[in-house]
Design goal:
single chain; about 110 residues; mainly alpha; Four Helix Bundle (Hemerythrin (Met), subunit A)
Length: about 110
Amino acid sequence: MNAVMKVIDKDLALQRAGGNAQLAAELFTMLLRELPQQRAGIEAALAAGDYPALQHLVHKLNGSATYCGVPALKAAADSLESALKRGETGYAATGVAIIMEEIERVLRQAA
């Protein structure tokens, strides 16, 4: 999404976990485990044109990304969630494509 925005920011993750390194690591591990399922759900909701479900799934991803130190993914999720809240469904395909790209970047960098 943004070339200057980090894919994974461990300092941000630690800050979000209140300075608890073990908690930050656990939250990040949970995110990595959930990303494939979240990706599939988001893609399915878009394919079905189910924008309320898409908004709900993107909201969940946005929340997860907030606490896990993945600022580029959070920004992508936040952007699509905001557009969907405004009823801007025409942006959905583009927003989902950006989210999918950021999920792949997180998974690659974490590997």
